[in-house]
Amino acid sequence: MHLTIATYNIHACIGTDGRFKPERIVQVLHELNADVLALQEVEHHDVEGRDLLDYLAAKTGLTAIAGPTLLRETRHYGNAILTKLPILAVNRVDLTLPGHEARGAIDVTLDGNGRRVQVVATHLGLRPWERRQQVRQLLKLFNIGSANVYVLMGDLNEWFLWGRPLRWLHAHFKRTPHCATFPARRPFMALDRLWVHPRRRLAKLEVHATGLARVASDHLPLKAVIEM
């Protein structure tokens, strides 16, 4: 059995042409055809009479798990997970540090055909000190032995390949390739990252760089195949 997973910063469905077109994001999600999707920058617009996340879930046939980090009167904003797999547990984690933009993670346990799969989806802060604190907090979520497969994925905003957050993550999960996902038209920064434990389960990792993906958001999706 294989699982396909992906992380995608959808930039509130505003493409590289500056246009708000959620239908393009839906098409990219169909291209990915993933079992589990981590989404960042999900802004809660009204689309065809639905909340944006509900719209994406309805159009893809996936189950949505919301993880808003900013709660506003009109438009909430934050992380989300879309999944085909049965949901066993959900834990929303606050990663916000005083004086910094609200950040968070969604920690879910899923049923992967009888195997427990822990997925943590996140979007980290812009400052190096902030990311160091957040990565320390994230690593505490993984209780090795409580699941069969563990995944951490999201927009880490970490452009220092030699920085401490990446070194800690590589030490915990073992090293995975860095694949450039930003900016979408001509990517050269590996802001979107994905780790799997046990490392041998990670069969494939690639950037989804179709013509549509290059215009639908300012990030490209990062996609992986896990051998179960």
What does this structure look like?
With 228 residues, the chain is of the alpha+beta class. The protein has a single domain (2-227), classed as 4-Layer Sandwich (Deoxyribonuclease I, Chain A). Helix content is 20%, strand content 38%. The strands form 3 sheets. A 6-stranded mixed β-sheet has the order 5-6-2-1-13-12, with helices on one face. A 5-stranded mixed β-sheet has the order 7-8-9-10-11, with helices on one face. A hairpin with a 6-residue loop joins strand 5 and strand 6 (77-83). The longest helix has 12 residues, at 128-139. The mean pLDDT is 94.
List the helices and strands and how they pair.
Blueprint: E1 2-9, H1 22-32, E2 36-43, E3 46-47, E4 50-51, H2 52-60, E5 63-70, E6 77-83, E7 87-94, E8 104-112, E9 115-123, H3 128-139, E10 149-155, H4 164-173, E11 192-197, E12 202-207, H5 213-216, E13 222-227
Parallel strand pairs: 1-2, 9-10
Antiparallel strand pairs: 1-13, 2-6, 3-4, 5-6, 7-8, 8-9, 10-11, 12-13
Helix pairs in contact: 1-2, 3-4
